[in-house]
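Page 37, top half.
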Amino acid sequence: MKKIIVLAALLLSFISSFAQDGKSLYRKYSDEPNISAVYVSPAMFRLIGRIPDIQAADGDVNLTPVIQALTGLYIISSENPDINAKLSKDVKKFINSGTYELLMEAKEDGEKMTMYTCGDEKTVTSFVMLADEGSEVTFICLDGKLDRNKLEEMMSSQAK
């Protein structure tokens, strides 16, 4: 019986090691050579969220509700050719393993940028962007519980 429990525990830990999220990708790549890495913690978002009415550059959009809803920001930017393909592959696995929906894709002269969100009709729980510029790959992941209506209102007001 103990052997079965130990085997099950090992199998479970092995399977969970394949599950990836923004934080695990950050941990995997942040110490690699020629990598720029940024992590913003929930504590920082709470601190920023206490500042009243943070406005976008043009002053028309209040960013405070969006900032207060964030729980993590992970950015990995790689100029390491050995890492770029691995990072892109891991991000694609991460996207395909969840319930992410493609928001936008842009391609130009061999460069590609894709944006995805995860959540339901009312809430966005994760936003992911992957930009592959050939010699540089950038991964950005925002986690939190963003009200989809507020996010759409903010985006539509910026589009005007």
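Page 37, bottom half:
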Amino acid sequence: MEEYYNEKIRKKQVKKTIKNILVKLIYILLLPIIIWDLIIIIETIQNPNETPSVFGIKTFCIISGSMEPTISVNDIVIVKEVDQSEIKRGDIIAFKHKGETITHRIVNISKSENGELLYTTQGDANNTEDEDKITFDEIEGKCIKVIPKIGKIVLALKSKTTLGIVLAVLIIIYIFEQKSNTKKIKRSNERAEYDEKNSTS
């Protein structure tokens, strides 16, 4: 009977540990994205005609395979605004051209007749260079980091409705966890008081 009781307690503890790990993972994975999205939303409201950035850092979700295998669909690229002198051949950049934001590699740098630098770009998976050369003014920034396969989550959380629902769920989980911890502390204190009384009686 004691062995059965101990096994029951062990299973309960395992379930509790798994639950705690899952809750922590949810916070670790979602909170940074949520905070970033909230900052981006605020930036978009303040500067609706510009690409949102935080301290010169911008993020873009990749929706085509033109940069595979270096960057895949649903990867997130983090780009940093840089001076023109920091851009060189071989760099991966994000740039706006004809209303689209594109992330491609610089394959050549030339000069126009008036001496302005022109950048020829190409996707790693493409056989040909991009049709139009771009200027520095069109460049959003240089790619400094690629975060694989979280693009769908980031895009989903950019919806204000989805973001609100996720925030509400996280707040409810947090409140539930706090109440649960308070009850545990209370029970533990009551148990300690009970044991103390019995030991002195």
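Margin note: The mean pLDDT is 80.
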